[in-house]
Each structure stands twice: as structure tokens, then as C-alpha cells.
Amino acid sequence: YIEIGLNYYPQSLSVLSLATNIYSILNKYSEAEACARTLLDYNASAQAYYNLGLVLQKQQRWLEAENILHQAIALKGAYAEAYNNLGLVLKQQQRIDEAIAAYKKAIQYNPDYARVYSNLGVLLEEQENFSEAILMHQQAIQRQPNFAEFYLNIASVLKKQERSEEAILACQKAIKLNNNLAEAYETLASILDLREAPLQQIITLYQKALSLKPDLLLSLSSLTFSLQKSCDWKHWKPLAQKVLNTVRENQQGGVATFYFLALSDDPALQQKCCRQYTAKHIDNFSSNQEAILYKHEKLKIGYLSGDFRIHPLAFLMAEVFELHDREKFEIIAYDTGIDDNSAIRNRIKIAFDQFHHVKKLSTQEIASQIRKDEIDILVDLTGYTTFSRTKVFAMRPATVQAQYLGFAGTLGNQYIDYIIADKTVIPEQDLSFYDENPVWLPDTYWVTDRKMAVSNIPTRSEADLPETGLIFCYLGKTIKIMPEVFTVWMNILKATPDSILWLFSEDELTQANLRHAAISHQVEPERIIFAAKKPSSEHLARLSLADLLLDTLPFNSHTTMSDALWVGVPIVTCMGRSFASRVGASQLKAVGLPELITENLEEYEKLALALAQNPERLASLKNYLITHRDSFILFDTPRWIRNLEQAYLMMWERAKQGLPPQPLEVEAV
Questions:
Q1: Is the Cβ–Cβ distance between 153 and 118 less than 8 Å?
Q2: In this structure, is the dihedral angle defined by the CA atoms of residues 639, 641, 642 and 644, taken in order, positive or negative?
Q3: Numbers of helices and strands, H then E, in the chain
Q4: How far apart are CA 580 and CA 573, in angstroms?
Q5: What is the structure's pLDDT at 1?
Q6: What sign does the CA torsion over 88, 89, 93, 96 have?
Q7: Main-chain dihedrals φ then ψ at residue 248, nearest 5 degrees
Q8: Three-class DSSP category at 332
Q9: Got the DSSP string for 456-522?
Q10: Quick check: helix, strand or coil at residue 549?
Q11: What's the pLDDT tens digit per position in 251-270?
């Protein structure tokens, strides 16, 4: 009908205006633009310019759209709708301050314009100015309380502020108002995932989101990783292939980078995944700020982390902070996580010279605080994990910037100068897979806290374990259990009568899936025993009951492995191609047991069986680990910290000389 109308009334302003809108809705942008320009020729009004600007905006022709919107505003100064769209266009050009100013102009001219409050709230959230973002979303809801998207938007910010109960209520309100809003199911699932809700509930929500919007990439990857956590490999496998393909095909930034480490052993693909994430989420924070070369008597080291709490990183790093040489270094913490008032957190707070809890600050505010503190070297201990604030590094607040421990691979951006590693996890031939320059520590990059307390060792029955038989264990995250590795574990059980496999899971669906998988391998399901969460000291005590830890691939055990070695449990690992798959090898070398490293799953299975069938050898390995523990490089934290400090001095020396970062190798001190 529109085409008929245009044929009969080619100069009708109402027909041209209607045609512009309909073609735009149908994504026929060339036709919409032609109608908009014809309308403008006949009637150069503010509304005509606005309509054309909207069409150009939908075609992502940002600069042209900006110019046209300015002409609309010139004709009608108090034009709230045009200022709102101008804000959207400026935001896309990363002209954030100008975008905020445009939104505020729209509010000035129309204080009841709900949409502009929402748009401003989304922008402030992206800038990690969460408190102001929430205020804007509340203003939008107040003015238009029955619009589902406004509740979805505020839920996103509440989630990031750890106000999960409020976020859940907001998602539920959004779904009540619009039960076809896919993103509301997606956001609700992600909040429940953070709260460690039953996986079946989380999976169902992601499936609902995808049923409504099949191209929702975040839901696709999140569903894939939830299925991987639940060990539902039948439904996981085709989705995993889709996720891998989305990264290969450059579908920008929709895949969870940390979980991708457990999906792919290809360091080039991992780098690509992280680069895509950077392009979508980090690059818009980049700054032209030049690094300042400070002249301090002591080198100022800043540690940015969301994990100064009950978290594996805190238990690994606490002694590092305590042992820094205070005659040469001043260390300052920037805490982006939650204050759980735990003993480990309080210990860490005391260890720092300054401790700043910056969780509620925006990215700009955190960067400003770091510049104010004149940090020489800023170290990211979180990477792309929970409470990540890696965006701060894009603003270049410190002279030298590095990453360590929190993320086992490249972060895929140009804002981190160095990655602290060793030549096992990053061999020289793999340099091209890292956007950072490796700083190779001698022996191992891994560090542990020698003060880790171990409770009284329970009896087998107290740990819900059988009184006899070998105990194979893996007490790490189930997302790291791949079906190929599980098959090997089942082969080992079948060849070792009376043995059991001790795993960690409190999720009913995961336990059921693993028992069902055991049956499919002709293994009695009761031979898989599940451990529940325990405080660190109790966990270490029960872990010592195991006879052999079976490592995972492509994401090795990491903290689970160093815990096991600390309490005298030997380990068989399989070394892959990626950083995350070579940590086991790094640790075993650092306790003098390179013979427990294999390079393929066939060797891995043979070695595990050989040890299982040689109880004397297993007993000898356990005795060796317990007897010589204090002499191992892996647990020589004072020596390790001196090597780390030497690495910092080498980084700083290059900066002082005006030289760009390059790979560095630290000689053992």
C-alpha cells in the first residue's frame, strides 16, 4: 500500500513520512532514506531532518546522522527527541561527555521523557558509574512504570552492584510485563548463576531466552557453559561447536572469555576470543593519557583485584603481599570485590601499605585514584573473571601495566604490557598468541602461601569415603571435566577394582549426569563420590586422604593441584597447548616430579594405571611430597617473591630508559 501511495501521491508529506517509518521498520534502509530525503526536499522542517537522522543512525552512519540531527536542533532548539538521538549517535562515536550532555539537554527540554533517562542510565552503566545509572533507571521507571525494558536495564546494574535480590525482582517484573523479552530471561539466569542456584533452573532460563531470540549470542555461550558445568555432554557438544564457530567467525565479544579457556586448547583461538571481547567491551575506555615516569624512592606497585576475599587467589597471594621488601617497594591494593569480612581478607588488608575498596567507584574514578597515588606498576590479578575492572587499564593510569594469576592466558588487548609467566606455560614459540610480553620467572610462575592451615585429617568414613580401595580424585570445578577426560577416568576405574573417583559437586543435576555417564561406561555409579564445600583448612585436610589426583584438560586443576601437592597427594597431568593446560606441568616441575607429566591422553591413562597398580610407588611419592615439601621451589615463597620483585625492577628499568616493553627473562636470585 505504501508503494501504491508513493506512486499516486509522490509529493504527499504524510505519505513520505509514513513510508520512511515503515521502510525503516522493515530494515529497508535505502528506500527509507530515499523517502526521507524526498520529504526533506519538499519540507525542510525539523521533523524531516529528525526522520532522516534516524534512518542514518540505523545504518550506523554516525557522523552523517550527527550532522543531520544538529540541523533539526538548529530549526527547533528545544527538541528533546533529537537531543536523545544525538546522545545515542555520540555514544557510538565514543564521545561520552558530549553524549551525556546531549541526554541532559533532552531531559531539560522534556523532564518526563522516560526513554532518555533509560538511555543515560545505560551509558553510565557502561562507564561503570553504577550508582548514577541506577538513579537514571529509577527516573525512567517512575515516568513509565509499565515498560519492561526499563526493569531489565536496572536489573543489569543491580547485578553488577551485587544487589542480587533486587535484580531478581526487577527481572521478574520485566518478564511479567513482557514474557517475550528474551534478555530478561538471560539476565535472570546470569544472576542465578552468580548465586550458584541449581543448574537446571539456570539452563531452563537460558533455553527460554534462546527460544525467543535464537541469535542471542550471550545466552548461547552461557547455556553452553552451564551444560558443560552440569556435565550434560550430549546437549553440550553441538552448542560447543557453535560457540567455537562464533569465535572463528569474528562475532564480536559475546563469548565468556574465562569459560572459553575450558572449551578450547587452541591458544590462537583463545587470543581471538579475548580480542573480540576487548573490541566490544574494553576499547571504548581507551585514553590518550601518557604514562608519567615518577621518581619515587620506593617503587609503587598497585594490585587491582576483585578477589581479596574467600577466593583461591587470596589464599595463594596473601603471603606475597606480606613478604614484599618494604625498603624497595610500596604496595597498594585496589579492591573491586565484595567485603566478606573474612579472616583471609583481613589478613590481606593488613599486609598492604594502603588498601582502597573501590568497588563502588566508576572506571574513571578508579583510574583517577591510581594516578593520584602515582602508581609505577599496576598489576591486574582478576582478568576477565568476576568483579573484573580491566577497563581501568585501557585508561593507562600507571606507567607500566601487567597481569598475573587471575586469568590463565592473554587478555587480548594492548593496554597490558606484561604477563607474568614461566617458560612452561608460555614457551618462546608461542609468543604470537599473547598480546602482552611475557616476563618469564625462573622455575614456575605459580605461587603459594606457606601459612595455609590444615585441620585435623578426618577418617575416611568421616569424609564419606570407603574404608578400603584407591581414591582417585579431582576436587575442582566440574566445568573443567571434558567427556574425553572422563572416558579416561572411567577406563582407570574399570582397570582398578574397588577404586573410587572423588569429585566436587553439590548440584543435583550435575551429580545425576555424572552417575549416568559412569553407567554408560559400564562403571557402577556408586563408585563416584561427591564432596561438598568445606572451609579451606578442612578441605586441605580431607584432600590428603586421596591417593592420586587426576588432572583435567584443557583447563588444568591449578589451585586444586597446588593444594594437593601441599598435603602430599601426587598428580598425573596432561600438558596441552594453551597456558591453562600447562599449569599442571609447571607445578610438577617445581616439586621435582616431571615424570608425572604426559603429553596426550593415552600416555596419561597408562601412567595413572601404572601408579594405581604400584602401591609402593604411590606411597613413595606421597612420602616424598610430605618429607621434602619445605624444600620445593613451588613452596619457597620468600625466594619466589624476590624473583617477582626482580621482574618488576626489569620492567621499570625499560620504562625509565624510554624503551617499549619486550619479553623479559628473570634469573633466579
A1: yes
A2: positive
A3: 29, 14
A4: 12
A5: 44
A6: negative
A7: -60, -35
A8: strand
A9: PPPPTGGGT--SSS-EEEE-S-GGG--HHHHHHHHHHHHTSTT-EEEEE---HHHHHHHHHHHHHTT
A10: strand
A11: 766 788 999 999 999 999 99
Looking at residue 10, what is its pLDDT? 52
- Strand, helix or coil at 337? coil
d(CA 381, CA 302): 10
Distances (CA, A) of 491 to 187, 284, 480, 519: 40, 50, 18, 12
DSSP assignment, residue 418? E
pLDDT tens, position by position, 597-630: 999 999 999 999 999 999 999 999 999 999 999 9
Across-strand partners of 304? 334, 380
* Non-local CB neighbours of 443 within 8 Å, separated by 6+ positions: 422, 589, 590, 633, 668
pLDDT at 398 over 60: yes
Sign of CA dihedral 356, 361, 363, 367: negative
Distance CA 507, CA 503 (A): 12
Give the position of cell 552461557.
222
Q: Angle formed by the axes of helices 46-58 and 62-75, to 10°?
A: 170
d(CA 65, CA 52): 8
- 643-668 pLDDT, tens digit per residue, is 999 999 999 999 999 999 999 999 98
Q: Which residue, 127, 182, 180, 133, is CA-closest to 156?
A: 133
Burial of residue 655 (number of CB atoms within 10 Å: 0-12, 13-18, 19+): middle
The answer to whether 648 and 641 have CB atoms below 8 angstroms apart is no
Mean pLDDT (whole number) for 507-515: 98
Dist. CA 333–CA 343, nearest whole Å: 17
Is the entire prediction scored with pTM above 0.70? yes
Residues with Cβ within 8 Å of 213's Cβ and at least 6 positions away in sequence, in order, are 182, 183, 219
Q: Is there a cis peptide before residue 615, judged by omega within 30 degrees of 0?
A: no
Q: What is the mean pLDDT of the chain?
A: 94
How far apart CA 410 and CA 426 sit, in angstroms, is: 10
Q: Any idea what the Cα angle at residue 226 is, between residues 220 and 232, rounded to 5°?
A: 105
